[in-house]
Amino acid sequence: MIAVGVDVSKHKSTVAVISSDGEIRMKPTDFHHDQPTLNQLVSTLLSFHDDVKIVMEATGHYHKPILKIFLESNLFVSVVNPYIIKKYSENDIRKGKTDKKDAMRIAWYVLEKHYSIVPYNITDQKYDDLKYLSRQYGQCVSMRVKARVQLYNLLDNIMPGIQTIINSRTADPDDRFT
């Protein structure tokens, strides 16, 4: 088995590869999120001719381009909660946080937990889309509330007492236009 740890950042991912006997097959290497570079990464992983298991942390939407290319290449890939990796790495004596160290930690995690790693399910995309839309809706509602509060504060500064007139005029919908 080949354990692949992917530490995802905004424009690049750091990838480390370890074989089942603990040999480092590829030191942590940066791959930018563009098509030719990701194709090169997939070719490298497929060249190992072994059972490749890839794990990456869920990073909002930053992991999506690399996840998509792994799924299109029919590679086993799992997206895990960053908290799980954090808890796993708390056992490490050497502290420090760099992309290269994180990629190695994730690869060691794959090696140790390979029996319990669940593959990414494409139906999860629907839930990701719903979560995204829900967050966007929440942000729109929040912006609307904030704008309304700012408007009322501005009205109070410019025309003190106008709020009572507005509230009394809008309390009964039938009286709005009289």
TrEMBL record:
What GO biological process terms does the UniProt entry carry, in alphabetical order? DNA transposition
Report the domain of life of the source organism.
Answer: Bacteria
- Supply the Pfam families for this chain: DEDD_Tnp_IS110
Report the residue ranges that make up the Transposase IS110-like N-terminal domain in this protein: 4-160
What is an example of a GO molecular function annotated in this UniProt entry? DNA binding
Q: What InterPro entries does the database record attribute to this sequence?
A: Transp_IS110-like_N, Transpos_IS110
Q: What protein name applies here?
A: Transposase
Task: Report the source organism.
Answer: Faecalicatena contorta
